[in-house]
Write a structure and sequence with these properties.
The complex is a heterodimer of chains A (about 110) and B (about 120). With about 110 residues, chain A is mainly beta. In chain A, the strands form two sheets. In chain A, strands 2, 4, 5, 9, 10 and 11 form a six-stranded mixed beta sheet that branches. A five-stranded antiparallel beta sheet of chain A has the order 1-3-8-7-6, with no helix packed on it. With about 120 residues, chain B is an all-beta fold. Helix content of chain B is about 0%, strand content about 50%. The N and C termini of chain B lie far apart (about 35 Å). Classes of the chains: A mainly beta (about 110), B mainly beta (about 120). Chains A and B meet through strand 5, strand 9 and strand 10 of A and strand 4, strand 5, strand 9 and strand 10 of B.
């Protein structure tokens, strides 16, 4: 079945360092979404990318959607302790359903 | 405005008991989703509704799991004869638009522990 894979599974950085997480789908996606889940919290929507090659920025966060619409990345510049959490990518299931298939996430910890 | 709410937040059940988990979506949201999240994993889709219609239940692990949304608003996920492998956080999410993937607003989840 359709799979969404994320690497790395864990990332530990010093505050101020950059961070990148990568997402790969086994199938072409019509769009991709990113969510952040703080420790003990619930997933919170960050962004949706739709177009091939699209790049969107939110302050220190940069999101990219690959040209083939099968991969995506999230880059955080100069991490802060508030960036701690698990970042998930999610893509729509094949077949036109609204169902989202989530990756296993990248857990980011930041050392102050 | 109010977000998605879920109750109870925590539930401990003895193996074999039935449980019912409630989700109150954001008012006016068309689509409602249930996910199961095991520790250290991403949310796994269980089922979803567009208004009162259950359009996809392909993720329900067994016929012990049942979900309903009779009036197109509040939804209940019922698990019969709970097993230890059912222990997880059950997340509910709602989406304003139906018929396409759109941002989902998650509730705080219900942590189910089966002993």
């Amino acid at each position: 079945g359709q799979q969404v894979m994320q690497i790395p599974q864990y990332q530990h950085v010093q505050e101020g360092e950059d961070f990148t997480t990568y997402c790969n789908s086994s199938t072409t996606l019509s769009n991709i979404q990113w969510y952040k889940q703080r420790p003990g919290g619930h997933p919170v929507f960050l962004i949706q990318l739709v177009k091939s090659g699209e790049v969107k920025k939110q302050k220190r966060l940069t999101f990219q959607f690959g040209e083939a619409k099968k991969n995506s990345s999230l880059h955080i510049t100069a991490t802060q302790t508030t960036d701690v959490g698990t970042y998930f990518c999610a893509g729509p299931s094949q077949g036109g359903s609204e169902k989202l298939v989530f990756g296993k996430g990248t857990k980011l910890t930041v050392n102050p | 405005g109010a977000g998605v709410s879920q109750s109870p937040r925590y539930k401990v059940a003895k193996r074999g008991q039935d449980v019912a988990l409630r989700c109150d979506p954001i008012s006016g949201h068309v689509s409602l989703f249930w996910y199961q999240q095991a520790l250290g994993q991403g949310p796994e889709f269980l089922t979803y509704f567009q208004n009162e219609a259950q359009l996809d239940k392909s993720g329900l692990p067994s016929d012990r799991f049942f979900a309903e949304r009779p009036e197109g608003s509040v939804s209940t996920l019922k698990i019969q004869r709970t097993q230890q492998e059912d222990s997880a956080v059950y997340l509910c999410a709602s989406s304003r638009i139906g018929g396409t993937t759109y941002e989902q607003y998650f509730g705080p989840g219900t942590r189910l522990t089966v002993t």
